[in-house]
Each structure stands twice: as C-alpha cells, then as structure tokens.
Amino acid sequence: MAVLILLGVGLSVPGDEAPPDCSGARVTGWRPDGRMTAELARYGNDNVRHDDWTGGDGTRSVRLPDGRTLWLFADTFLDQVFDAGGHHSRRPDPVWVRNAALVMSEDGRFERTLLGGTESRPAALFGGTATADGREVWRWPVQAVVERRRPGAREKVVRVLLWQREAGSAPWIFGVPRATEVATFSLPELRLEGITTLYRPRHTDPERRVLYGTSALTRGRWTYVFGADEGSVEGKASRAHVARVPRGELDDPKAWRYWSGSPGMDPSGGGWRSDPAGSEPILVGGTAQRGATGTYTVVRHGAGWLLLTMDAGAPDGGGITDVVSYWACSPTGPWRGPHRVAQPPLPEGADRVGAVPYNPQAHPEFSRAGEGGGGSSGNGLLLSYDVNVLGTDTGAIQRNVALYRPRFLRLDIGPAETP
C-alpha cells in the first residue's frame, strides 16, 4: 500500500467539545510483542493449505461479538512457504491477491483465510473490476466496525471500509484514488453480502481526492471515520479529514456528515455537513511541513484521543523510520504533538535490501486493560506495523517472508507531560 503524507488545519466545534476531564496522552514506553508476531508467522508458514495467507500489509482488525477477531489485509501473498533450516521463503512468482481476511479464534490462534474465487483459483475477497480502457481497478480494505444492521435492530453485522483504486502511471504506482466504499458481512457466518459506494471524490486533481477509513471508531451515538487526501504522491503535504455517521448507518451515504470547519471560523457556517466536497482538513502537528501519513491510526484514551503515525516531515528528513503520537480532546482536533514513540525493529537483513516500516495500526481490542471498549485505557496497547522493501531488490520479500509481514509492539500510555 502507498505511504501517504498528510497535514491539515481545523478546530473543535460545539457537539465535539473537549470534555472537562480530558488530558493529553503520549507513549511512555514500548516493547516488541513477540507472541503476536510469532503467531502470525506460524500461520503464514503452515503449509497445510497453499491457498491461505503467507504475507500481507494494510493490517487492521476488529473484534467480533463471539470473541473471534477478523483481520483485514491489502495485497496478500498465498502459495507455499519453504523452510530451509528456519529460513522461510516463497518461490519467486507466488500467487497473490489484492486483499484477504484472516479469522482468529477467541483464544488468539489464526484459523483460516477468507478469499474469493475457488479453491483451485483463489481470488481477492473484495473483487475488482477494470476501467473502460482495460486498466485494473482494485479494493484495499481498511478499518472495520461491528454495528447493528439498522439503528434499533438486534442483528449485528461487520462493516468494512474499502479504498477503491485504479492502475495509473508514475507517480501513481500505488493506484489512483477512485472511491470510498463499505462492505457488509453477516454474523456469525462472515458471509460477504455486498458492497456500497459511499463517496466518489470528483476533484480533478487526484492529489486532493480524499479516501476515508484509515481509522474508524465509535463514541457515543457516532462512528468517527478518519481519512486523508494524497498530496504526498510527489512529496507534497497531504491533509487529514474526518467524518461521522450515526451508529447503524455506516452503509448509508446520506447519513454521513463531513467536518467542514469551525462555525466561528467558516463564514458558510462550518460544522458537520452532508456534502463531502465541503470537508475541511483537521490539524495534525503545527506546521505545513510535519504531520501524519495517510495510514495513521486513532484510538480513545480516557476522555481524549490518541493518533499514532509514521513521522512525516521530521527535521532531519529521516523521520519516516519513526512512529510518533499526537493527542486531542476532540476528533476534529487540534492534534498536539508530535511525541516520539519508537523506531520499530525490522527483521534481520532488512537494512541490506532497503526494507522499511510503515502503516502503524492500533488494535485496542487486544489491550491488556479496558478490553473491548474501543479505547486504550491503561497500558498495553497493541500496535502493528507493516514491513516492505522499497528498493530495487523487490525479490527479497520472496527470499525472506519476514520482509513482507506485520510485526507488533506493546505500548505503555501515560500523560503527555511525562518526559
């Protein structure tokens, strides 16, 4: 997946005011989570089937009502993994699909891969299409939430937000943004029922097209959905955006409301509006040169909000190797920071082939305190980060499967003023 740099401006608004007990938060310590990293490696290296997951990126997860966890991945390798004395590799041209999902049992063991197609010809779980001139159109799943099928209904479903992209020429090597969509899965069967288009940006400049879903979480009667434009495709600043939807209506485009700025600052009235074209960016950091990447993640912490991202625009130009955090008392910001979190460890040999970490994603359902509430109260927040090779030696990810698999950290959270 693309690594997209973003930055923007915005203020809070009545209805999303800072609660009186809100205080800042930052990461005060971290450690590798070897158990989760090893469990995903165990599943990926298992050759019981050759049409299941052996590596992927875009890592996100959602806890299901029965205790299972659905994990979502973008570009995914399948096929066989070879073990040569503990060194695991794939063949040079393995089968791969644009997306897949994994089901984890209640006791934390990966059990199966969800795909489309057939056993003999596996395909992406969320199928793609093509443009009129034959270029590929694909879908990358991003964040998912469990909600009632309709407000007041007893039945629950899983809604998975999707980014639709189409093949393009440089600099759009990760695809031109086309639309934000949402897929619906039945429960407990996890049967894909359908896909709905939520928002198709019409901006003539693809760099300013906003896709939503890098993070999504519920608070009160709302689901807040964060997104970003794509100005970083040529190294420019991109901008973060946020929308909100009443619980139980994530698949209804008419129910979405987009943040359009503070009423006091915007002569048109600002606030939350139904027209996505009027969305205004939110503040991440304090300058136009520094902010988050387009695959940032947001969690609740106490009465506030915590945003985690790769550090875009660090003063020494090398901050893309570091994870940093920002905090706010409202989903519309302002987001204060950055606070340094960690430089995520990479697999052995990563430096020689140009491997990098990216896409840090929080998994609060695995927090050791406050499980299941969508927040990170206390310590022990689980954070994944993806690994890929961006240099010329792209075959390295087949020679060493660890170079295209997520890894995990445990984060301790404390007050923002903690040194």
What's this, in brief?
With 419 residues, the protein is mainly beta. It has three helices and 31 strands.
β-strand amount: 35-45%
Alpha-carbon distance between the two ends: 34 Å
Strands ordered across the widest β-sheet = 14-15-16-17-18
Residue runs with pLDDT of under 50 for 5 or more positions: 2-15, 369-378
The CATH C-level name is Mainly Beta
Q: Give the helix level as a range of percent.
A: under 10%
By DSSP, the count of extended strands is 31
Overall 3D form: globular
* Spatial extent as radius of gyration: 20 Å
The CATH architecture can be named as 5 Propeller
Largest sheet entry: 5 strands, antiparallel
Count of helical stretches: 3
Keywords:
419 residues; mainly beta; Tachylectin-2, Chain A; 5-stranded antiparallel β-sheet; 3 helices; disordered N terminus
List the helices and strands and how they pair.
Blueprint: E1 5-6, E2 25-32, H1 34-45, E3 55-56, E4 60-63, E5 69-73, E6 76-77, E7 82-84, E8 87-89, E9 96-97, E10 100-104, E11 110-114, E12 116-117, E13 122-123, E14 129-130, E15 136-148, E16 156-166, E17 176-185, E18 192-199, E19 211-219, E20 222-228, E21 240-246, E22 257-259, E23 272-273, E24 292-293, E25 297-301, E26 304-310, E27 323-328, E28 336-342, H2 350-353, E29 355-363, E30 381-389, H3 396-399, E31 407-415
Please explain how this structure is put together.
- It comes from Streptomyces tubbatahanensis.
- This is DUF4185 domain-containing protein.
- Mean pLDDT is 87; it is low at 2-15 and 369-378.
- Strand 7 and strand 8 form a beta hairpin.
- A 5-stranded antiparallel sheet has the order 14-15-16-17-18, with no helix packed on it. Strands 19-20-21-22-23 form a 5-stranded antiparallel sheet, with no helix packed on it.
- It has 3 helices and 31 strands.
- The relative contact order is 0.19.
- By secondary structure, it is mainly beta.
- Helices cover 5% and strands 41% of the residues.
- The chain has a single domain, classed as Tachylectin-2, Chain A, CATH 2.115.10.
- The radius of gyration is 20 Å and the shape is globular.
